[in-house]
Write a structure and sequence with these properties.
single chain; three-stranded antiparallel β-sheet; alpha+beta; two-stranded antiparallel ribbon; 151 residues; 2 domains
Length: 151
């Protein structure tokens, strides 16, 4: 605008989505992180017929992108609470006190079973949220104590 410090309105292509539609898409993706990219826009805003490129552009602008889901052993709330209580009780132990503890771990391995990659929409730093993690089961047992290990 002449005579003011404000910029004139810019010309260019109109936005393909309203801010409300964009927020609806972002909310939907955060609630359904494992949904296929091809299903997001037809599900949320079917009347617009937008490409997946538009979806990625929108989500990238909001700090969200498609990542491989992290794999972790399943851990229910009861076991997590027991582990936390155990750790809190021993938080001030010395290395010598821990020498008497027997440590064990277990995992499941299935030969010949192909594991398909699970992809999730998420922001950086959200990789260990429950909705962004794929449970992984194991069946191998290992026990160790005082720097001696038996498999």
């Amino acid at each position: 605008m002449i005579g003011t410090h404000e910029n004139a309105p810019r010309s260019g292509r109109p936005q393909s989505m309203t801010p409300e539609q964009e927020e609806t898409v972002v909310k939907f993706v955060k609630e359904n992180p494992t949904i296929l990219k091809a299903l997001v826009l037809p599900t949320v805003v079917p009347e617009l017929h937008l490409s997946t490129t538009k979806l990625y552009t929108l989500l990238r602008g909001k700090g969200i992108r498609k990542w491989r889901a992290r794999k972790r052993p399943p851990l229910d709330a009861e076991v997590a609470a027991k582990r936390l209580a155990w750790a809190i009780k021993r938080k001030d132990w010395t290395a010598e006190e821990f020498e008497g503890v027997i440590w064990s771990d277990e995992c499941t391995v299935e030969k010949g079973k192909t594991a398909s990659t699970v992809w999730v929409f998420r922001s950086a730093g959200e990789e260990y949220l429950p909705e962004c993690v794929v449970p992984q089961r194991y069946v191998i047992m290992s026990v160790s104590s005082n720097n001696i290990s038996t498999n």
